[in-house]
Design goal:
14 helices
Length: 379
């Protein structure tokens, strides 16, 4: 039986529940611009904003999990495992996620998203794995705090576009096939390397009280630093906040940090509260935390599964709504022209997806804990 760290699974599961809302909105909502201060509403903005916590948490906890995987492997074995798993995640984006997003079996518009970002981060970690843990964490820290400056100093070219400045980076393969890299590799590797260093807190024998204190203080410090730097409005995000037509929208502007590429303020705003949450959930045990744990036990399988299920719902609703099966023309995410449901229906469909997928997720989580086949480490 494989042991799990409950607080990590609880937080990861909660983030996956939130992630599901984002993807249901992406596939099923009436076309909108949640972060456009001129047109958005408070509810629509926060429906999008809360999902900003997803990608940084996945990347950070992937680093923590990599450290824990190294507790039962040699450095050489861990490096090989991270290399293979990283490549598998990149392939997953190239094949499964691209097909679900573009709905184009010819793969003319290939997408590299969060799975590829985690995968490349793992490959980089595999190359660095023999360095001291503190040095790996320092490299992650420098990337997080310095890449906004590096973006302004380095010239625009295909290499910096792929590594640092994906908004997105467009990589033509031929006259008919193109790769769109939406997650710049180096900035997203920063949280993963930092997470690897934080993985030491979960090593066997580490004092639990000390771990919770470090996580709490680190999370509070990051959150307070976000507030201070964002208020100063000089460094850490390419999009400064501004006073809007009312106090509520001014707050939205303050919180509207840049995800692509992930700015320093974006990562402080998201990872700070996540660290606090990791500290506070260690001793929590209730019905809701148990539900979160179910999803957190099977991150990869749920990620692929929920995307496929939402796309299936999308197609069924297109037929039910009697809309022609005709694309809007946007190549990255296929959608029928004229399709879209109001936000209140999006929330209902979000709950429906969670309820339906809870049971297979619970079954698969139990199966993984009770079996040791090699391929389970990749699914």
């Amino acid at each position: 039986m494989k042991n799990r760290i409950h607080s990590i699974d609880i937080v990861r599961g909660l983030i996956m529940i939130i992630m599901t809302l984002d993807h249901v909105r992406d596939f099923l909502h009436t076309p909108s611009q949640p972060t456009n201060m001129q047109t958005t509403t408070v509810v629509l903005f926060f429906t999008r904003w809360i999902t900003h916590f997803c990608a940084p948490t996945f990347v950070f906890l992937s680093g923590v999990s990599a450290y824990l995987a190294g507790q039962r492997r040699s450095k050489g074995e861990l490096s090989a495992f991270l290399l293979k798993r990283g490549l598998w995640l990149v392939v997953s984006d190239l094949v499964f996620i691209t097909l679900l997003f573009s709905f184009n079996p010819k793969f003319q518009f290939i997408t590299l998203e969060v799975l590829a970002a985690i995968g490349v981060g793992m490959i980089l970690l595999a190359a660095l794995i023999r360095l001291p843990v503190w040095l790996i964490g320092t490299i992650g820290f420098v990337i997080i705090f310095g890449h906004n400056l590096a973006e302004t100093l380095l010239p625009d070219n295909p290499v910096t576009g792929i590594l640092l400045k994906a908004r997105p980076a467009v990589i033509p393969l031929s006259s008919t096939h193109t790769i769109f890299e939406l997650y710049a590799f180096i900035p997203w590797a920063g949280p993963l390397l930092l997470g690897y260093a934080f993985g030491q807190l979960y090593a066997n024998g580490f004092n639990g009280i000390k771990r919770r204190k470090i996580l709490l203080l680190s999370g509070l410090a990051a959150t307070l630093l976000f507030i201070a730097l964002r208020y100063i409005n000089q460094y850490g995000d390419p999009a400064p906040w501004a006073v809007q037509r009312n106090a509520a929208h001014t707050l939205l502007s303050f919180l509207n940090t840049t995800k692509q590429t992930p700015s320093l303020l974006y990562l402080l705003m998201t990872l700070g509260p996540v660290m606090v949450l990791l500290s506070l959930t260690e001793n929590i045990s209730n019905r809701f935390s148990a539900i979160c744990e179910v999803f957190g036990n099977v991150p990869y399988a749920y990620f692929i599964g929920h995307m496929a299920f939402i796309r299936l719902i999308n197609v069924l609703l297109i037929f039910i709504d009697d809309i022609p099966f005709k694309s809007t023309g946007f190549p990255l995410v296929w959608q029928a022209d004229g399709f879209g449901h109001p936000l209140w229906q999006v929330y209902l469909l979000w709950l429906f997806v969670l309820i339906v997928l809870y049971f297979p997720a619970r079954w698969y989580g139990n199966y993984k804990r009770g079996h040791k086949q090699w391929w389970l480490s990749y699914l």
